[in-house]
């Protein structure tokens, strides 16, 4: 059996509690552009994600809640410029400690996310130091590539075999990306689109449970 060496993280909904902030920018841009859309609340949005609606990268999120493509493009550019300053988000309870404990236990840590680098570094702050600098794949690095391709690039960069890696995510699309690349998957039920009702893969109910689960694998 291969020893687990690499833990890859999605960010929003796994480490960063940013769903409310993302829905708020959708509402604000809806009002600013006069679109007259009914932006879902958190419960409705989670149901949308669980149904398989694509929400990553950010343009797809705007389109998922009803933005026409031309306005989704405009909103995405506004998002890149203003989100980290005007819509601050915080880490989930225990997330920073989880990263620290995994790092101190000898795991390589990486990021594969549809968010932009400036946003994740602002929110993770000192926590970004726990990640391998050559293994951070954001929307900027992926440049339109999928999370699946991000996982493959991360493993190739660090010379890690699929059976030596695990991807921690909060969306059905994350499950698909993990399955397609042959890495293990751990879902979190406190994020955007996975719940404790999911039985096809392990699910953590809190950030500290991520460490507990991974520690048991080794």
Descriptive account of the structure:
By secondary structure, the protein is of the alpha/beta class. It has two domains: 6-16 and 90-217, HAD superfamily/HAD-like (Rossmann fold); 19-86, no CATH class. The chain has ten helices and eight strands. The chain has helices at residues 19-33, 42-50, 58-64, 69-86, 95-104, 117-124, 139-142, 147-158, 172-181, 207-217; strands spanning 6-9, 16-17, 90-91, 108-112, 136-137, 165-169, 184-188, 203-204. The strands form two sheets. A six-stranded parallel β-sheet has the order 5-4-1-6-7-8, sandwiched between helices. Strands 2-3 form a two-stranded antiparallel ribbon. Strand 4, helix 6 and strand 5 form a beta-alpha-beta unit. Helix 1 packs across helix 4, helix 5 runs parallel beside helix 10 (207-217) and helix 8 packs across helix 9. The longest helix is centred in the middle third of the chain and has 18 residues, at 69-86. The radius of gyration is 17 Å and the shape is globular. The relative contact order is 0.19. The mean pLDDT is 96.
Order of helices and strands: EEHHHHEHEHEHHEHEEH
Give the spatial strand order of the biggest sheet: 5-4-1-6-7-8
Residue share in helix = 40-55%
* Count of all domains: 2
What kind of sheet is the major sheet? Answer: 6 strands, parallel
Number of helices: 10
Q: Which structural category fits the helices and strands?
A: alpha/beta
What is the name of the CATH superfamily of the largest domain? HAD superfamily/HAD-like
| Cα radius of gyration in angstroms | 17 Å
CATH architecture of the largest domain: 3-Layer(aba) Sandwich
Give the N-terminus to C-terminus distance in angstroms: 10 Å
Mean pLDDT: 96
């Amino acid at each position: 059996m291969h020893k687990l060496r690499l833990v890859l993280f999605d960010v929003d909904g796994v480490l960063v509690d940013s769903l409310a902030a993302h829905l708020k920018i959708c509402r604000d841009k809806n009002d600013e552009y006069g679109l007259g859309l009914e932006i879902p609340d958190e419960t409705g949005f989670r149901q949308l994600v669980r149904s398989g609606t694509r929400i990553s990268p950010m343009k797809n999120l705007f389109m998922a809640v009803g933005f026409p493509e031309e306005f989704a493009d405009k909103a995405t550019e506004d998002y890149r410029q203003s989100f980290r300053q005007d819509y601050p988000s915080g880490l989930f309870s225990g997330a920073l400690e989880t990263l620290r404990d995994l790092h101190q236990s000898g795991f390589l840590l990486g990021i594969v996310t549809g968010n932009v680098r400036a946003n994740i570094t602002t929110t993770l702050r000192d926590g970004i130091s726990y990640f391998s600098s050559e293994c951070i794949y954001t929307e900027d690095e992926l440049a339109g590539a999928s999370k699946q391709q991000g996982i493959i690039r991360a493993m190739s960069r660090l010379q890690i075999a699929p059976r030596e890696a695990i991807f921690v995510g909060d969306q059905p699309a994350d499950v698909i990306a993990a399955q397609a690349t042959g890495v293990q998957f751990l879902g979190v039920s406190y994020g955007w689109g996975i719940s404790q009702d999911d039985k096809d893969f392990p699910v953590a109910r809190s950030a500290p449970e991520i460490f507990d689960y991974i520690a048991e694998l080794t």
